[in-house]
Specification:
Blueprint (H helix, E strand, L loop, with lengths): L17 H15 L5 H10 L2 H18 L1 H8 L48 H37 L1 H15 L3 H16 L8 H14 L3 H14 L3 H8 L4 H9 L4 H24 L11 H11 L8 H25 L6
Helix pairs in contact: 2-14, 3-5, 3-14, 4-5, 5-6, 5-8, 5-9, 5-12, 5-13, 7-8, 10-11, 12-13, 12-14
């Protein structure tokens, strides 16, 4: 009687034991069923959301355009500071009429000035908008990163340690929440300017940028701190945290390895809502005259100028307004998509 694992004749193929074949198939199946991290699962859900992907592309486009503002304005042959309507160098190409209004259609749109020109001065609107986006976006990004980092740190400390630490951090948070940030900044800026800058001298742009950064940072972290604190309070009582304590892990290791990875979702979602809100705040401050001023290009300053020119040249507000609405809408929709991607119960 021949063995099932041997060939019956010379030169024939060797037959495998059925049990070995089954074991091999199970091993191959286990290799294929590799576990996926929460980040990979989130990314797969996010890729299936067409709205989120489109909005992410729009947001990236805005940041790339802001970063490449000098290159884009070099292609158009303009800059945001030259007064094309008053500079004698460009007298052979008049762009303003006798009343200081743009010649041509839709605010002076032409091959030389892609978005038209500013009334009275003739500055190129495309160059002003590109550099204004650059100022607003990167200022808002810096403020948002500082706000989020401070809020996460204070929320983690208060939520994990509790007791007196949580009590006093809570009272500090309540104290800063009592300040109306925008009104406080409007009153604060002239005081700081008078204290550090000679009244006979013009306030440097870097000083205004630093003042905006510090004030919005100091008065903006409280909401994030409260959100993180409430999340950490619920996490510190969970079984995996208690197990880490029993195993002798230090508080720093528990916070870093057990708690922090579980609050990435609310932090990221809050970031997508905080940044557009910060952009609107910076634009409001410039519109109110206490943020960036002439000749620094800024999104808010374009709206302040557009408010003066609305009756004579309503087209001046079209491009800055449209770009701001598209960016804010895309970022808000992106935040919704990120939140749904982190939520495994979401049907999207």
């Amino acid at each position: 009687m021949t063995s099932p694992t041997k060939a019956e004749g010379s030169g024939s193929a060797v037959a495998l034991d059925p049990e070995l074949e089954a074991t091999s198939e199970v091993a191959e199946g286990e290799k294929k069923l590799e576990g996926r991290s929460p980040g990979q699962l989130m990314w797969q859900r996010f890729k299936r959301d067409r709205t989120g992907m489109v909005c992410a592309g729009v947001v990236i486009f805005f940041f790339v355009a802001a970063l490449c503002a000098p290159l884009l304005t070099a292609l158009s042959g303009t800059d945001p500071y030259t007064l094309y309507g008053q500079d004698p160098t460009y007298a052979d190409k008049p762009i303003l009429d006798d009343f200081g209004l743009p010649l041509g259609y839709f605010g002076g749109v032409s091959a030389d000035h892609w978005f038209g020109v500013e009334p009275q001065y003739g500055r190129d609107l495309f160059a002003m908008l590109m550099f204004g986006m650059r100022t607003s976006l990167f200022m808002a990004l810096g403020v948002t990163v500082l706000v989020m980092a401070t809020g996460v740190l204070i929320g983690l400390i208060g939520g994990y340690f509790g007791g007196r630490v949580d009590y006093w951090l809570g009272r500090i948070t309540d104290f800063f929440l009592s300040f109306p940030s925008q009104l406080f900044f409007i009153a604060f800026m002239p005081v700081v300017t008078a204290f550090f800058v000679d009244p006979r001298e013009e306030t440097p742009t870097y000083f205004r940028a630093l003042a905006i950064l510090i004030v919005l940072w100091v008065l903006g972290w409280m909401g994030m701190a409260r959100l993180v604190r409430s999340t950490v309070l619920s996490l510190r009582e969970r079984e995996f945290v208690e197990a880490a304590k029993v195993a002798g892990a230090s508080p720093w290791r528990i916070v870093r390895k057990e708690i922090l990875p579980n609050i990435v979702s609310p932090i990221l979602v809050q970031f997508t809502y905080q940044l557009p809100s910060t952009i609107l705040t910076i634009a409001f401050l410039s519109f109110a005259g206490v943020g960036f001023v002439e000749p620094t290009p800024d999104w808010g300053r374009l709206f302040a100028a557009g408010a003066r020119y609305t009756e004579q040249d309503p087209a001046f507000m079209f491009f800055p307004g449209t770009m701001l609405v598209i960016f804010i809408l895309a970022f808000n929709l992106l935040g919704d998509s990120v939140r749904d991607a982190f939520d495994p119960k979401s049907g999207r």
